[in-house]
From TrEMBL:
Keywords carried by this UniProt record: Oxidoreductase
Record's protein name: Alcohol dehydrogenase YqhD (Iron-dependent ADH family)
A Pfam family it matches: ADH_Fe_C
PANTHER family: ALCOHOL DEHYDROGENASE YQHD (PTHR43633)
InterPro entries (UniProt xref): ADH_Fe/GldA (IPR001670), ADH_Fe_C (IPR056798), BDH-like (IPR044731)
Species of provenance: Pectinatus haikarae
Domain Fe-containing alcohol dehydrogenase-like C-terminal: 196-392
Length: 394
């Protein structure tokens, strides 16, 4: 096991009516004006936004409402939101939604605290290292990205087509209010995307060059088995509290770094998928399942035993030949994604078969025209990226 330092300071309030403790806890932080950020409007239609604003108001907090976050959050929205927050003297931000809303809240928090810097050119492009941010909380309505406990966030620059992540300890939210009942109204496809994202956050840490990391392996394998076990009930039974609570808890654990302690992250599939989202505006989870099997088949010989171990742990594959076991495990995972309604190639993603020019464009965006390598389990250059995109291009 490699050396590591770990701190996940997010306070978790989990269970039925967890969100009703938001006003009390945010007020205790000394906040006065809260920017409440949300997405497409479902939280308005189902009454959650009104309940939260009343809860905050009853605790003496002023609410400023900012809606309209897109599924792939964009930098122009953040820039306008920073202006609003400065004008209203916001000192706390609360995200109501899933990963896209929480990532937007993180960007708003950084931009508000460092208003002299541009959120994309300076902060997101890492030209300037920031040392302060605005505290944020989240009320989770979709178990997926794990952004409620993670140190990462992703934004899309719609002018350049770039979708880029930023990792910093300042991204860790101060608190997260997690009521599994709030996920009941999410569309089935969004739930499936969320389940896929949870699995992928764990897989991207599981495949690493670091060896002899047994406790972390057991945690990662147990989490993935738990997600697979409860995913079908979560998808088939809209109001299954047990299934939704297990999935929600796994989502937070999958991306708070616990499943990767003591080893390097890879996140090659995320990078490959980000370019699909950046160009075609497809759902994040769907972009990941589209690319995973192609990445895995292209990369499995890097560590055949690792893939064979996963096949045994998740799918009880027992074969004397490790290579056969590894390939069988990849096929089982790919088939699982299909059974929950997720795409595993470009045509299933809905973007159709791409021409050579578009494949080259995706590879260029992924590797900065060949200037950068992606990942570390099997470092990917521009030609590798082209090959993987081609494997998914059917």
């Amino acid at each position: 096991m490699n050396s590591f330092e770990y701190c996940c300071p997010t306070e978790i309030v989990f269970g039925k009516d967890a969100e009703l403790k938001a006003g009390e806890k945010i007020s205790a932080c000394g906040a006065k004006t809260v920017l409440v950020v949300y997405g497409g409007g479902s939280v308005k239609r189902n009454g959650l936004l009104d309940r939260l604003c009343k809860n905050l108001g009853d605790s003496g907090l002023k609410c400023i409402i900012l809606g309209g976050v897109k599924p792939n959050p964009v930098v122009s929205f953040v820039r306008e939101g920073i202006k609003t927050a400065l004008r209203e003297k916001v000192d706390f931000i609360m995200a109501v939604g899933g990963g896209s809303v929480i990532d937007t809240a993180k960007a708003l928090a950084h931009g508000l605290a460092n208003y002299e810097l541009d959120i994309w050119d300076d902060i997101w492009q890492k030209k300037v290292e920031i040392h302060k941010t605005t505290p944020i909380a989240s009320v989770l309505t979709l178990a997926a990205a794990g952004s409620e406990t993670s140190d990462s966030a992703v934004l899309t620059n719609e002018e350049t087509g770039q979708k880029r992540g930023l990792s910093t300890v300042l991204n860790r939210p101060k608190m997260a209010f997690m009521n599994p009942e709030l996920t009941y109204s999410a569309p089935k496809f969004q739930v499936a995307c969320g389940i896929s994202d949870i699995l992928m956050h764990t897989l991207e840490r599981y495949f690493s060059k670091s060896r002899d990391n047994y406790m972390t392996d057991f945690i990662a394998e147990g989490l993935m088995k738990n997600v697979i076990q409860f995913s079908r009930d979560a998808l088939e039974k809209e109001n299954d509290y047990l299934a939704r609570s297990e999935i929600m808890y796994c989502g937070s654990l999958s991306h708070c770094d616990l499943t990767g302690l003591g080893r390097q992250k890879d996140f090659s599939v995320h990078k490959l998928g980000h370019e699909l989202s950046g160009k075609f505006d497809v759902a994040h989870g769907a972009s990941l399942t589209t690319m995973w099997a192609s990445w895995a088949r292209y990369s499995y010989q890097t560590d055949i035993d690792r893939f064979a171990r996963l096949a045994g742990a998740l799918w009880q594959v027992e074969k004397n030949d490790a290579s056969s076991a590894a390939l069988e495990g990849i096929a089982r995972m790919e088939n699982y994604f299909k059974t929950i309604g997720m795409p595993t190639c470009f045509s299933e993603l809905g973007i159709g078969v791409q021409n050579e020019k578009d494949i080259n464009y995706l590879a260029d965006m992924c590797t900065d025209k060949g200037k950068k390598m992606v990942g570390n389990f099997k470092p990917i250059d521009r030609q590798d990226a082209i090959n993987m995109y081609k494997m998914a291009n059917h």
